Amino acid sequence: MSEAYGWFGVQERDASSAATYRLPTDANQNVPSVYPDGYLPKIVTDTSDLSAALGLRGEIAGFNADFNVAYGKNDINFGVRDTINPSYGAASQTSFEAGGLEYSQAVFSADFSRGVDVGMAGPLNVAFGLQARTETFEINQGEPASYNRGPITGVSFGSRGFTGFTPGNEVDVDRDAVGVYVDLEGQLTEKFSASAAVRYEDYSDFGTNTSGKLSARYDFTPAFALRGAASTGFRAPSLQQQYYTATSILYINGVPFETGTYPSVSPVATALGGQALDPETSRNYSLGLVYRRGAFELTVDAYRIEVEDRIVLSETFQGSATAAPGTNARVIYDLLAPLGATAARFFINGVDTETNGIDVVARYRINDPQAGVFDLTAAGNINEFEVTRTPTSSATILPTPTSLFGRQATLRFEEGVPKQKLTLQGDWSREAWGATVRTTFYGSVLSPGTLADGSADTETGTRGLVDLEGRYTFSDRVTLAVGADNLFDVYPRQIPPNLNTTGAAPFSSFSPFGFNGRFVYGRVSVRW
């Protein structure tokens, strides 16, 4: 007996976010007759998402079979409001259509599985299948005033906050990939289970790859078990990483640079050391234990992740019109000036990383006929991240060799996320009432500065946040909830005044919980 299934969804979203405030005294960014008090550009996005799938599942020759095709598309159009193109002076418009991005993916899958009796403690589950995928990526230009240079020279040009995509930025590319896999899983003995899987992929732009996974679990008693896994991974560079190109403002030590992001094989990138991107590969290992006794559950898992040829953005190469001829800064400026940029960056390979960590999750459930149900959870993570290799480049026009991935970028990887995180959560429910209280502790995060001696580095500090929510459900269908995230209005440590020369950003964007303080909300949900 066969069964057809499918779904279709469309979503439209409009959003607005603030860029960096432009000071009224900044002659490079502002026209005082238009914005005498300075201005805060607003980046607006109009996002359309479409997803659809159609499938047929049933039984073929004793195998459970599933054939399906799925399609998804994301379309983002950018605009900028409350802004200006300074190179047009007072004649500049104050809103712009800046262009957009489109990405689509169509996937056909055929999956088969069945249990086979091979004389073990349980049946051997056999699964295999194939997947064929096609992807497309497009960049569409904005209106000319969003990227053009007006009649006024010596100032920034293009819409501030988000410079429009230029005709030279336009991209329309695609690729195909086909993969096949086999997965075996079974209960070898009463206490020992294991699985093995292998996957082969063929990309139209990156050739072939084979990856696999082995995992096992041994239950010493009904309450205690050990588990482990080892696997290899593969990730081809995305179309966006290969082809994305745009010019936008990037602040470096408080100084704005018209920064171009270029494909790694573009003339600009290759002149600065860029090369064609290779796929990332990885090795993953984990070992853990599971313990259950009554209402108490505990899992502890240690892991190690090794990634080779990680794809990252390069250092930002900065140019200067006032630099001495023959210096790096002047060579970069001469290279980028015809493109309307003063700095450049591109995606690169060659960063190897190692991550070691431990995840611990403990849960205890209390079911009291009078007080209700209490679900208590404690979850913690301790990790250590290390960059073990950085890329080198010999193909460059720069007279003085420059690192493609330097101190600041390395520290962002190694110290840019908390090394410790602990969450304590309690959920309570009784009849129509419910509540959740959660406390999350974050370890300190380093925000590295550009000075080699570390004097411009800052830390967010160790912080604890409390979230609280209360709920009431009407007739099992409508639920009303009120709550507060960051109930006690906690903020990360402020950036020292000597490192925050503009005063526009008092907190580091590296804060793991943001810097917007308390958020109070009410929510109504309907289930049918």
Task: Please give a structural write-up.
The chain is mainly β and 528 residues long. 5% of the residues lie in helices and 55% in strands. The chain contains four helices and 23 strands. The protein has helices at 239-243, 267-271, 328-336, 407-415; strands at 3-18, 42-60, 63-81, 96-116, 124-140, 171-187, 192-203, 207-219, 224-235, 246-252, 255-262, 280-293, 296-313, 317-318, 343-368, 372-389, 420-430, 433-442, 446-447, 458-459, 463-474, 478-485, 519-526. The strands form two sheets. The chain has a 21-stranded mixed β-sheet that branches. It has a two-stranded antiparallel ribbon with strand order 19-20. The longest helix has 9 residues, at 328-336. The chain is globular and about 80 Å long.
Question: What is the topological layout?
Answer:
Blueprint: E1 3-18, E2 42-60, E3 63-81, E4 96-116, E5 124-140, E6 171-187, E7 192-203, E8 207-219, E9 224-235, H1 239-243, E10 246-252, E11 255-262, H2 267-271, E12 280-293, E13 296-313, E14 317-318, H3 328-336, E15 343-368, E16 372-389, H4 407-415, E17 420-430, E18 433-442, E19 446-447, E20 458-459, E21 463-474, E22 478-485, E23 519-526
Parallel strand pairs: 11-15
Antiparallel strand pairs: 1-2, 2-3, 3-4, 4-5, 5-6, 6-7, 7-8, 8-9, 9-12, 10-11, 12-13, 13-15, 14-15, 15-16, 16-17, 17-18, 18-21, 19-20, 21-22, 22-23
